[in-house]
Each structure stands twice: as C-alpha cells, then as structure tokens.
Amino acid sequence: MAKNANLGAAKNAKNDEFYTQYADIQKEVNAYIEYNPDVFRGKTILLPCDDPEWSNFTKFFAQNFEFFGLKKLISTSYAIESKKYKTDWQPTLFETENPLYNVEKSRIKGKIFTLTHDTNNSGRIDIDDLQWSYLEGDGDFRSAEVTALRDEADIIITNPPFSLFREFMAWVMEGKKQFAVIGNMNAITYKEVFPLIKDNKLWLGTTDVRWFYQESTDSPLYEAAHSRWFTNIDHGMRHKPLQLMSMADNLKFNKKLKGLTEYQHYDNYDAIEIPFTEVIPNDYDGIMGVPISFLDKYCPEQFEIIGNEYDLNLSKGRGYVNGKRCYGRVFIRKK
Ligand SMILES: C[S@@+](CC[C@H](N)C(=O)[O-])C[C@H]1O[C@@H](n2cnc3c(N)ncnc32)[C@H](O)[C@@H]1O
C-alpha cells in the first residue's frame, strides 16, 4: 500500500513536468485570434508555472508580441529545489553567462521574465528583448508575489502542474481574469470545474493536447492522458450549432439507434438517454442525458446544461436505463 502510494506520488510529480509543444499552443491561440483578431491587443499576459528560458509558451508569445499587439508579457518559473520531480538539472548558459547570475539563488528562487519594449534597438520587439530577474520566493503560483502578477495581468495562459490543477483553477478564477489552461480531460467532471462549464464561465478550447516533452523541450515526446484547453476566451467552434435530425428521423435512419423503436427513458430521472451526441433529436423539449464528449460540441445558444449525475444527486449516484448504468452523462435541454 505504502509502496503504491509512493509510486503514485512519483508518477504525479513526473506528470507535473510535462512541457507543451509550440504547435499545440499555436493551434489553440490561432482559434482565438481567428474569432477576434484583437483578443490580445493592449493586454498583459501572464504565463505562470513556466520555464521561460526555453518554454514554448514564452517563445510563442514573445515572437508574436507585436502581431498580437500585446502591452506586456510576464512569465514566471518555479525554483528547481521546490520541484517534486528531481532531475540532474543544470542552469542554462543564458543564466550563467548573465551578469545577474547568482549561484545560490539559481536553485531556490523562481524567475520572472518580462517583455514590454525593444530593449536592444533591433527595430522590433521579440524574444531577445526579454528582461529577467530572480523572484523573491520560489515562484509558487500561490505566493503573494505571483498572485500580485496575476492581479496585474488581463489573461493567464499555461499548462499548470497536473497534480495542482484544481488549486490552480481556483487561483485563476479568484483573480477573475481571462484564461486558457491545459488540463486533463477528466477535469471536466471536477466539482471545481463542472459548475463553471454549466454556468458558461468556462468552456473547452478547440484543440486536443496529447504529446508533451518531458523535462525539457529537447527531450523525446511522451503521450500523456488526453488533455484539453479550459478557457473563457471565446472562439468560433462554440457558436456553431449542431446539425441534428428529428426524433422520428433518427429512429428511422440513424444506424446508431438500430433496434430501438423509441428513445429510452431513465429509471431514476425524468430524462431520455442519448447514447451518442449525433442522435440528439432537434424536436425534444425535455431533458436529455448525453455523453460528456458532447461538451466538445456544446453551443450555448443551442442548449442549456442542467447538470451532471453528481450535482443532480441522482439516486445511486448514476443515471440508469432499464437497470443498466449510463456512464458520464451530462443533462441538457434544447433552448
Ligand atoms: C506541466 S509543467 C508545464 C510547464 C510549461 N508551462 C509548459 O507547458 O511547457 C508545470 C510546471 O509547473 C511547475 N510547478 C510545479 N508546482 C508549482 C507551483 N506550486 N507553482 C508554480 N509552478 C509549479 C513544474 O515544476 C513545471 O515546470
């Protein structure tokens, strides 16, 4: 038991050190820009839980600083001594060859990088204009100094430590900022997350994230559990209504309902069971239990989310149809 707990803790610590590919950041951010080209104009972006010397988040936003019309970019890192997953880390040449380098601080302090203007008179603002210093503390996002940076920022973007996802989301929401944060798909059902989805205060982004670097952006890619962007930045996909058929047509023509003469009703809740998003009828006004993957297609102008099995307190904690349990359902109603 203790051995399993240790193994679990080691795995969690390692999962906290997954780094995001440039293309994954680009794909998602492009969807926000496509929907609103001025989404970042005049804004301060904070990238916490980063490793700015080589993070693709810092690289991506620094390279696009002028194109996005940013006012300020801030990224912060977490001190190597504070990380739970230990590696044979060495400071980068960027750090050791800089006059600010301090051998003691290097291991125990976080760092802050900021970008606001053309510091090297190159005629453009880019990654070479980043200014850095050590933080007072270790860069923990919960610290007062990183929280003050959150409060200064308009938008918070990162892939936070896997093991602190709930805490990180609570910290972001408390700041009442715009955000785009990578998290495991399972986080949809967390009690800290689902109510926000239901109230349209948080939604899924447009792309999947599956392959991460481990330990550094030079390391091989690792396929991690299915991750998604959790955001409150608007994008076009969430305003595209699903094209659906009537109940009668689905029962007649949709192969996914083969063998059924009518939609089934839950035993323990006044709703019909929808086994696949594609078979949601466009002419049913009552409540429907749909698979959680529906949230990828959720258009708030088309449907209202009523709740999930947990917050609706369904008897036995689950929806049942003819005594058979239906897993991971979200209950919705046509608008
Ligand atoms: C999943 S990695 C992602 C890094 C980077 N944002 C990226 O996507 O490439 C999460 C980072 O947060 C750091 N971290 C862990 N606990 C932290 C904390 N309490 N405060 C700030 N950063 C933390 C980890 O050491 C790691 O560098």
Please sum up the structure shown.
The chain is of the alpha/beta class and 335 residues long.
Describe the strand arrangement of the main beta sheet, using strand numbers: 1-8-9-7-6-2-3-4-5
Q: What class, by secondary structure content?
A: alpha/beta
Largest beta-sheet details: 9 strands, mixed
**Helix coverage percent:** 10-25%
Order of helices and strands: HEHEHHEHHEEHEHEHEEHEEEEEE
User: How many domains make up the coordinates?
Assistant: 2
Catalogue the unreliable spans.
Answer: none
Shape: elongated
Termini Cα gap: 50 Å
Which cofactor or ligand species appear?
S-adenosylmethionine
Which band does the percent of strand residues land in? 25-35%
Q: State the total count of DSSP E strands.
A: 15
Mean pLDDT: 92
Radius of gyration: 23 Å
Tally of helical runs: 10
Kindly describe this structure.
With 335 residues, the protein is an alpha/beta fold. It has helices at residues 2-15, 22-35, 56-63, 65-68, 93-96, 103-108, 144-152, 165-175, 194-198, 247-253; strands at 18-19, 44-50, 72-77, 111-115, 131-134, 155-158, 178-184, 203-214, 221-231, 271-273, 287-291, 303-308, 319-321, 324-326, 329-334. It has two domains: 2-237, no CATH class; 247-334, no CATH class. Helix content is 24%, strand content 25%. A nine-stranded mixed β-sheet has the order 1-8-9-7-6-2-3-4-5, with helices on both faces. Strands 10-11-15-12 form a four-stranded mixed β-sheet. A hairpin with a 6-residue loop joins strand 8 (203-214) and strand 9. The chain binds S-adenosylmethionine. Residues 16-20, 49-51, 55-57, 78, 83, 139-141, 158-161, 164 line the site of S-adenosylmethionine (SAM). S-adenosylmethionine binds at residues 16-20, 49-51, 55-57, 78, 83, 139-141, 158-161, 164.
